[in-house]
Amino acid sequence: MKTTPEHNDRIAKMTFSSVYPHYVTKVEKKGRTKEELQQVIEWLTGFDEDKVKELIAEKVTFETFFQRAKLNPNAHLITGVICGYRIEEIENTLTQQVRYLDKLVDELAKGRKMEKVLRAG
Questions:
Q1: Is 36 exposed, middle or buried (0-12, 13-18, 19+ CB in 10 A)?
Q2: Which Gene3D superfamilies does the UniProt entry name for this protein (predicted)?
Q3: Is 21 in a helix, a strand, or coil?
């Protein structure tokens, strides 16, 4: 399934602060912790907890969020389907990066071992 320019634009303009509480709820509902979520975000983006709080307070868009991120060199190992899209086939870089984060949160919530989520082995 291909993403449309409208879909990509909508994702770019979405604020990280509007989605973050949903990530927290999703992982906590499945018995994982906010700390584990932070570990996943830091692995993907390089943002520590203070930086994440700062970006939330600043109400940055996903576009700005990922422009400031230092994407993990192993992020390309994140594959599979999320929201009906095969991650490795998404052509828009920003949309793909947002889906990387969605997929990691999803895997965390599904109880996957942290080393698997973080593509460590």
A1: middle
A2: uncharacterized protein sp1917 domain (1.10.8.290)
A3: helix
Nearest to 48 by CA among 106, 104, 97, 40: 40
Summarised one tens digit per residue, pLDDT across range 59-84 is 999 999 999 999 999 999 999 999 88
Helix, strand, coil shares, percent, the chain, to 5: 65, 5, 30
Residue 82: phi and psi, rounded to 5, are -140, 130
Rounded to the nearest 10°, the torsion over CA 85, 89, 94, 99 is 40
Q: Which SS3 state, helix, strand or coil, does residue 65 take?
A: helix
For 2-28, what is the mean pLDDT?
Answer: 95
The closest alpha carbon to 74, from 118, 109, 107, belongs to 118
Domains, the chain, ordered by start: 5-112 (1.10.8.290)
